[in-house]
Design goal:
With 150 residues, this protein is α+β, with helices and mostly antiparallel strands. It contains five helices and five strands, in the order H-H-H-H-H-E-E-E-E-E.
Length: 150
């Protein structure tokens, strides 16, 4: 995978989700995974006693799509608005420089987001000239708003 783009993903993780940083550094690159079956239902909490709320499920889906869109458009400002904590102008400018240097990319959700109470995970599949990478973005509900922790 293009080193500049991989570095951009690392910066995105560091800026918005510190946990993602470690995952990006150890996640293997390689062939894209098989596309999920179109008829497969979204993954949800395995607990029968606490099914995810429809509003939370919808909010997580919107947030996951916004992450994908920000990556695909190389829009660090949009990504910064998705984080639980405000990001510094310096951090967002660094992320933007890295994404600009990466060249064209395509991004999509690798699978429907997984929701577990007030936490969720959105796995984003990114393809660039240098390869592919699936990155799990942790999501969290904070003060009634779903966001990328940081």
């Amino acid at each position: 995978m293009n080193r500049a783009f991989a570095a951009g993903l690392v910066l995105a993780g560091a800026a918005g989700a510190g946990v993602v940083l470690g995952l990006l550094l150890v996640a293997p690159s390689g062939a894209p995974p098989a596309a999920p079956a179109a008829s497969a239902p979204p993954k949800t909490s395995t607990s029968a006693s606490s099914a995810p709320d429809e509003a939370d499920t919808a909010a997580v889906a919107v947030l996951a799509r916004a992450i994908v869109d920000a990556i695909a458009r190389h829009d660090s400002a949009a990504f910064g608005k998705l984080t639980c904590r405000p990001q510094t102008a310096e951090a967002l400018a660094g992320l933007q420089r890295t994404w600009d240097a990466a060249g064209p990319v395509t991004a999509r959700l690798a699978a429907p987001p997984e929701l577990r109470g007030e936490s969720a995970t959105a796995k984003v599949h990114v393809e660039a000239a240098g390869g592919v990478k699936d990155t799990p973005f942790p999501l969290h509900k904070e003060n009634g708003r779903w966001c990328v922790p940081g």
